[in-house]
Amino acid sequence: MTASEYNQCVDLYSDGIYRFALKMLKDTDLAMDIVQDCFERLWVRHKEVEFDKAKSYLFTSAYHAAIDTIRKEKRKNEYASDGVFETSTSNSYSDAKEIVDRAVDKLPEVQKTVLLLRDYEGYSYEEIGKITGLSESQVKVYIYRARVFLKEQLVSIDNLI
Fold first, then answer.
1. Which of 39, 102, 138, 155 has the fewest CB atoms below 10 angstroms from its CB?
2. CA distance 116 to 99
3. E strand map for the chain
4. pLDDT tens digit sequence for 146-159
5. Taking residues 9-36, what's their average pLDDT?
């Protein structure tokens, strides 16, 4: 890959990678860090990665970086919350986007990832399989299960206004 092709990749894919990372992490700073790390990795390997494979390479890198970050943050939160008791608050009015976001956040990581790649980023089942390392049929099953879960969550009496 040439330097101009690399710059073209930055122009084409940086926004999509940022949106994907932001949806997974819910933190703008972490999402920006992941975008930067992915493009840094691409530049280090720019002679090995072909231009037409760069999109897949970048989203695969972003997926793995987001999973690593989630695991690291989870360990940090578990360590910080030892012995701390949280109080619950009642659910008051919330707009539809917040309700959907909360329901998506409850999904297992694999289901959340494939659902975001399919419904938010528009990837095909085959592309999602390449990014996540799953077979195409596994991707379809995880997306189906995620949608069933979301449907149950969204029609729950707790979410009705």
1. 155
2. 16
3. none
4. 889 888 888 766 65
5. 90
Residue 64 CB burial class (10 angstroms; 0-12, 13-18, ≥19): middle
- pLDDT greater than 80 at residue 17: yes
Question: Does domain 94-160 bear CATH number 1.10.10.10?
Answer: yes
Residue type, 47: K
Residue 66 CA: distances (Å) to CA of 97, 104, 138: 22, 16, 20
Q: How far apart are CA 36 and CA 42, in angstroms?
A: 10
Q: Contact 59/20 with Cβ under 8 angstroms?
A: yes
pLDDT in tens, 122-138: 888 988 888 888 899 99
128 burial type by CB count under 10 A (0-12 exposed, 13-18 middle, 19+ buried) = buried
pLDDT tens for 60-95 read: 899 888 888 888 877 776 666 554 444 444 445 557
Burial class (CB in 10 A: 0-12, 13-18, 19+), 34: buried
Which architecture characterizes domain 1-83 according to CATH? Orthogonal Bundle (1.10)
The structural domains of the chain, with segments of one domain joined by +, span 1-83, 94-160
